[in-house]
Amino acid sequence: MQLKRVFSGIQPTGDIHLGNYLGAVKNWVDREKEYDNVFCVVNSHAITIPQDPKVLREKTYELCAMLLACGLKDSTLFIQSEVQEHTSLGWLLTCITPMGDLNRMTQFKDKSQKNPKNILAGLFNYPNLMSADILLYKSHYVPVGEDQKQHIELARDTAIRFNRDFGETFIVPEPLIQKEGARIMGLDDPTKKMSKSSGVDKPNHLIALLDTPEVILKKCKKATTDSENKILFDKDRAGIYNLLTIYQCLSGDSKENIESEFANKGYGEFKVALADLIIEKLKPIRESYLKLIDDKSHLESILKSGANKAREIAEKTYKEAKEKMGLI
Ligand code: AMP
Ligand code: TRP
Fold first, then answer.
1. Which of 116, 222, 259, 306 has the maximum number of C-beta atoms within 10 A of its C-beta?
2. Which Gene3D superfamilies did the record assign (predicted)?
């Protein structure tokens, strides 16, 4: 039986954190056997915000090692810039996408507000590159966190438009968004999504997958909660709700069991239990990461064979799309 194809991507900027892990990467790993998986470290997306070239190179390899450390085994894993068809198809899709559709993207609005004096055209066009990533592999499913839903809707519209105007070519992809953990919030401010960029100047914002046990404990203890001191999954109390969601995703336990386990306990005790659980789950990842990053040639060979496999699929799709549009 032919497995359905999954594609997803992650940017090699900042520190990969618990939000990335619970919203995306953990699900890639947990469901790896169910699909034919293609995962990509999207360095060409990263340069839509200015990057230091040397840091970007290092972060790209580090993130690849981290994805393997998280448990990916049989997936095709590669670096986006190694397969040039991503940017090539991105251009074709740019030429069939109305500006108005891109103008509606909330991520563009958020990111351009952060640096209003230098909004790059690449940032505006970013969703077309993302559509190309997905459509190149004729992917059925795209496992992502909640924040990417709008981009996937655009990729769907683009696939439908292309198929209508140039003939059946692309599969219309569907997002796979977890019921729990699809939007992990910042520990310092539970009204804001946990994000790599906010982690840069706010030390208690995120838990990085490479944080040491001491740092994890400190950050959990400092996490913003409220004064009610009742450990319940109550969406109106965003701080404790977020911490409980992290606990639930990592333990795999039900909401009811978790609430009864902590029924007569206070926030202090819960925060320590949460830190212990995070430390326990991240320990093997950290250990495996340190081994992988220490053996660069092994890592490079995995990525090279990933890129070769990806390229084989991407070349075919790109050729098909280009010819249908009348390009020689
Ligand atoms: P990025 O860090 O933007 O490259 O995101 C990589 C993946 O992690 C995407 O699937 C995002 O939707 C997901 N993600 C990022 N931040 C969060 C978060 N705070 N909660 C859940 N998922 C997230
Ligand atoms: N835009 C995604 C993010 O910031 C990363 C990404 C790029 C992606 N291309 C993709 C995710 C294709 C899924 C599929 O998180």
1. 306
2. HUPs, Tyrosyl-Transfer RNA Synthetase
